Amino acid sequence: MTQTTDTPQASAESDLAYLKRMASAGRGAPAPFLVLMAAFGGCFGLSFLSIGLLIEVYGAEAFMSEDPGVLFRIAGATPLVSQGIFVLALLWTAWRTFGPNRVKLSRAAVAVWSAAFIALITVVVAFNLYTRGEPGTDQVYTIYMMFPVLLVLWGCAWWVTAILGERRWLLVVAVASFLAAVGMAVIGNTPPFLLASAACLLGLAFLPAVLLMRERRG
Amino acid sequence: MSVSDEDIDPLISSRVRAGVLAFLSDAGAADFTELGAALELANNTLSSHLQRLEAAGYVELRRGFLGRKPRTRVVLTPAGRFAWAAHLDRLA
Which 107-126 residues of chain A touch chain B by CB within 8 A? Predict the structure, then answer.
C-alpha cells in the first residue's frame, strides 16, 4: 500500500498513522447542535432560576396577586422569551446544517443529536395524547415526568459525544444527567423542583455545550 | 497489518486515495480545497486521484458556487463508505 523503501512493518505503521491522522483531520463537529443546546439550557435555566428564586423569597402566592410587581412580570415573561430564542437557535441550526454555507458535521453526532431531538418531540406529543381529556391536575402531574425523560435523552447524547470525542469529563456529565433524571423523579411536584431544573439546565446542558464550543475554537 | 496485496482494493491501495476516504469517513463531505490542504497535495494531483475514485463510484464531485466563488464538494457515496469499511475490516 505504500511506495516507501522502509521495512514492511515500518511502512505499515506509517500508513496506519497517516490514515489515522487523515480520519482525525476530517472529523466533523457536533456544532451547531451545541449552540442549540447552549441556547436551550441557558435561556430556560435562567428563566427557571429567576422564577424559582422569586418563589423562594416571596412565596408562590406573590405570583397570583393582582399586581405582582415588575420583577414578577419580567420573570413571568422569561419562559416565553426563552421559547422565542430557542426557536431562533433552531432555525439557525437548520440553516447551518442544510444551507449552502453548511458546517462540516460529524455523521455520528448528527445521528445522535437529531435522534435525541426527534425523540423529545415524540415524547412531548405522546405525553399530550396520554393526558388528553384528563383533569388539569393530572396533566400537570404528568408534566413532572417530562424533565427526567429530557435528562435521559440529553444524557444519551452527551454519552455518545463523549465516547466519540474521547472526553472523560463529558462522560461524567452524561452520568450526572442520568443520576439527575432519577433525582428529578424523586423531587417532582415539590417546591425545589424549579431550582433543581434550573441547576440541571445550566450545569448539564448550557455549561458542557459552551465548554465544548470553546474547546473547538481553542 | 498482515494483508496480502491481492486482498486490498486496488483503488484504495494508493496511500492518497485511502487518505481521501479516511478524511471523508466521518463528515461524509469536504471542499476540494480543504481536502487538498489536509492531504498536502497539489490541485492537479488531487484531481486525478478524485477522478479515479469518482469513476469507481466511491465519491461524487459536486460542482457549484458559494456566492460568486466556484466550489467543488467531494462527497463520499454509500459505495465508497462500504469500500472503506471493507478496507478497514481487512486491515484489522
Answer: 107-108
Say yes or no for a CB contact (<8 Å) between B25 and A104.
no
What is the residue type of A82? S
Instruction: Give A73-78's long-range contacts (Cβ < 8 A, gap of 24+).
Output: A74/A50, A75/A47, A75/A50, A75/A51, A76/A51, A78/A43, A78/A46, A78/A47, A78/A50, A78/A51
DSSP A206: I
- Which chain B residues are closer than 8 Å to A23 by Cβ? 22-23, 25-26
- For the entire predicted model, the pTM comes to 0.71
Cα–Cα–Cα angle for B69, B73, B79, rounded to 5 degrees: 165
Mutation site, A9, A19, A104, A163, interface B, largest B CB count within 10 A = A19
Chain A residue with minimal CA distance to B20? A22
Cα separation, A204 vs B9, in Å, equals 45
| B38/A23 Cβ within 8 A | no
**Total residues found in chain A within this entry:** 218
- A134 to chain B, any CB pair closer than 8 A? The answer is no
A131-162 per-position pLDDT tens digit = 888 777 777 778 888 889 999 999 999 998 89
Q: Distance between CA atoms of A157 and A152, rounded to whole angstroms? A: 9
- Locus of grid cell 466563488: B69
Percentage, residues of chain A above pLDDT 90: 28
Q: What is the ipTM of this complex?
A: 0.78
| CA nearest to A154, candidates A185, A120, A130, A183 | A120
Q: Is B20 within 8 Å of A23 (Cβ atoms)?
A: no
Contact B25 A23 (CB under 8 A): yes
Measure CB to CB from residue A25 to each of B18, B23, B28 and give the nearest one: B23
CA A150 to chain centre: 9
